[in-house]
Write a structure and sequence with these properties.
This is Replication protein. By secondary structure, the protein is an alpha+beta fold. The chain is built from 18 helices and 12 strands. It folds into 3 domains: about 240 residues, no CATH class; about 120 residues, no CATH class; about 80 residues, no CATH class. Helix content is about 40%, strand content about 10%.
Length: about 475
């Protein structure tokens, strides 16, 4: 009864200010470029919206929902047949290649959508005071394109002037932007009666306008509150580390097949001739096992406050690169999560961040670039500088240079320089494991925590000095 009352209050307040939009027109506005029936663009230049709906034929069976593509020339009839007054229909703000609405198939974002639970007359009036106000003001929000009364709360739609191409690195950045704006929008006892913030994927589907919320028996209604928006406009309201930069997306090559055959014969043979179109993974596991993944875990000490979530996402990406089993990954993420909670920041890190980061466990991130990982995490990754030599030859040369330098200075690089035995033990361990964390040193040396913490920084600097002359840093 409380939800129904909030719903009626919401309709009354929004409807007094903004015009209602019917569901058929709403989705025409959201997705103006769907294919027509029988049309097939093999280059994926026309991705389509996909929606889920409940069909009476499936009652009593295990099948809950059916999937259907939103085609331009049949939408009016399809809307009446499958969406209008249906007890359960769902649609996201994305368009997809192929026929499944999975995140890996998502090609463009037409709208960024937020779900805000527990919104009644008081909460919506507070939101009105914040929408469209300058971004530099505290808790202000960009003006949405639509507000949708969902029966249990409010769906806030930001429809883009130009849909955003969903390259893998852009998906990650949009996820962070959505989290940032969700935190800004969801304020307990002011914009929501719910204390727990509900963070959602960019691929989240929402009850469709014109359908019925079967739980409460209320109709989903939409109101147009503003115009379409740009990504730059939304970025203004987010923290700098959570803004989306689309200047360097992964763009498809414009090469002809003949040019590609000459330039990339291995790729041509695998993809064109053998029809094996799945991304070729880096050959990491056969050479180093989980070394690259373990190396990234050790970078946790470099994480700054605004990049904790990105560190977890990139940990998942490295797990994909190295074929780390999901079970081991989840255990390591939990350990990293406990350590990251101690990194100072305005926003608390939550278990939901782990679940969200795990969505990145997908084959499309196998070949995610170093530069993008650096940008997301603000952690500098040293490139492997071997001067085109094999690692064995490079290390032999580097060690020889180190020994010559030490001989000229009449020093032995292994000497403890008269330091106490405990400190010497830590330095020796760090020479062998220059990227080890404090907890690794404690386990590796058996020394107590206070001793390790006392000498750790000095030992780390010593290890870096040796590393610069005697070994390469790995990526």
């Amino acid at each position: 009864m409380e939800a129904e009352q909030s719903y009626m209050e919401l309709l009354e307040v929004i409807g007094a200010v903004y015009p209602e939009v019917n569901g058929y027109s709403f989705y025409r506005y959201l997705f103006p470029d769907n294919e027509k029936q029988g049309e097939l663009n093999t280059n994926f230049s026309r991705p389509n919206a996909i929606y889920l709906y409940q069909d009476e034929k499936d009652e009593g069976t295990q099948r809950k929902l059916r999937r259907r593509i939103m085609l331009s020339d049949t939408w009016e009839k399809d809307y009446a047949d499958y969406v209008e007054q249906n007890q359960l229909t769902l649609c996201s703000g994305l368009t997809y290649r192929q026929r499944a609405n999975r995140l890996q198939n998502a090609q463009r974002m037409n709208a960024l959508v937020f779900d805000l639970d527990g919104v009644g007359a008081y909460e919506i009036r507070n939101l009105f005071l914040r929408f469209g106000k300058p971004a530099e003001k505290i808790r202000t929000l960009p003006m949405p394109t639509f507000l949708v009364a969902s029966g249990a709360g409010l769906h806030v739609y930001y429809v883009f002037e130009e849909p955003i191409d969903l390259y893998p690195n852009i998906k990650l950045q949009l996820k962070a932007l959505k989290y940032d704006l969700t935190f800004r929008m969801w304020e307990y006892k002011s914009t929501s009666t719910k204390k727990e913030i509900q963070y959602q994927s960019i691929n989240q589907s929402f009850r469709m306008v014109g359908s019925i919320n079967g739980k409460y028996g209320t109709e989903i209604k939409a109101f147009q509150t503003g115009e379409k928006v740009t990504l730059d406009y939304l970025n203004q309201y987010a923290k700098s580390e959570n803004r989306v930069d689309i200047n360097r997306p992964f763009r498809p090559s414009q090469m002809t097949k003949a040019e590609a055959k000459e330039a990339y014969p291995e790729w041509y043979q695998r993809v064109i001739v053998e029809k094996r179109k799945r991304l070729k993974k880096w050959d990491i596991k056969g050479k180093q096992g989980y070394a690259l993944y373990e190396w990234w875990l050790r970078q946790i000490g470099e994480v700054k406050g605004g990049h904790r979530y990105y560190f977890l996402m990139c940990l998942v990406i490295y797990a994909c690169k190295c074929d780390v089993p999901r079970k081991k990954l989840k255990e390591d993420m939990q350990t990293a999560f406990e350590e990251l909670k101690g990194v100072e920041h305005d926003n608390p890190l939550t278990e939901e961040d782990i679940r969200s980061a795990l969505e990145t466990y997908d084959k499309e991130y196998y070949n995610f670039k170093i530069a993008d990982i650096e940008k997301l995490t603000d952690i500098r990754i040293e490139r492997n500088k071997r001067n085109y030599q094999k690692q064995k030859d490079h290390l032999e040369e580097a060690r020889a240079i180190r020994d010559i330098r030490m001989k000229r200075q009449n020093k032995d690089w292994r000497e403890g320089n008269g330091r106490p035995s405990a400190e010497g033990k830590i330095i020796e361990y760090m020479r062998e494991n220059p990227e080890a964390r404090k907890c690794d040193v404690i386990k590796g040396t058996g020394l107590d925590k206070k001793t390790v913490y006392k000498h750790y920084e000095a030992a780390k600097e010593q290890a870096k000095a040796v590393q610069r002359t005697g070994r390469t840093e790995r990526m």
